């Protein structure tokens, strides 16, 4: 597959996001909010949480496709409005409608809560183009069409550069195609505020597993070793990695769980730690993760 992510795609009209001053606040916020809800982000250059929040706000506003606008105000340069609103800490976000503040929050909220905040203001605007492409990519990947999936995820990343679901999806396509170097390069493109996103974490875990599985040898040989000596923990561990690389999740989990039943402390609890990495790669809602966690708990607490 070709490296088809672009980093300079347009995300939306520039007038959705503007900087304001004390002199232009009435025009940019009060008057503008009579036509469309306006979100005001009060920030300062020295504020670390502000630097985390603002990019997430910008992406969410662009995704709303004109249903809301974002106005940013540097309170170091323009303190008057923040003083009038009695803002005592930043980041502080206020939403205006019809010239009046109607909602707001303090601090750097996670992306999901910011989207919910915007949804309350904007109503149901439907999925964004990036979200639609991500869903197409997921369906294609589940159907085994990696080429179509990669194309959809890459287009989503062009719509919203650094979108964690798009980046993770494309990286997964490269992993499943065996192009681990390109998968690693793709994961590096996630936007900074989303580096801990669950989908990114799952893709990174899948990449780590793929790298470990590279030199394990033949599955049949590993199975023969385990059958010859059921307590050969290293062979069983390697067999679990090899089975997982072939897509046999249940088989991989079985081998590690058996190892834990024999000796949970082998190699500094390597089997349990590897199970956790499997769970991370599969995702918290995957049936293999759910059943694997139940079985692990049963063993550990029996």
Automatic annotation (TrEMBL):
Each TPR repeat, start to end: 130-163
Coiled coil (UniProt feature): none
Pfam families assigned: Thioredoxin, TPR_19, TPR_20
Domain Thioredoxin: 11-123
Gene Ontology terms describing biological process: cell redox homeostasis; response to stress
Entry keyword annotation includes Transmembrane helix: no
Keywords from the named record: Disulfide bond, Electron transport, Redox-active center, TPR repeat, Transport
Annotated Gene3D superfamilies: Glutaredoxin, Tetratricopeptide repeat domain
Molecular function GO terms recorded: protein-disulfide reductase activity
SUPFAM superfamilies to which the protein is assigned, alphabetical: Thioredoxin-like, TPR-like
Protein family: Belongs to the thioredoxin family.
Protein name: Thioredoxin
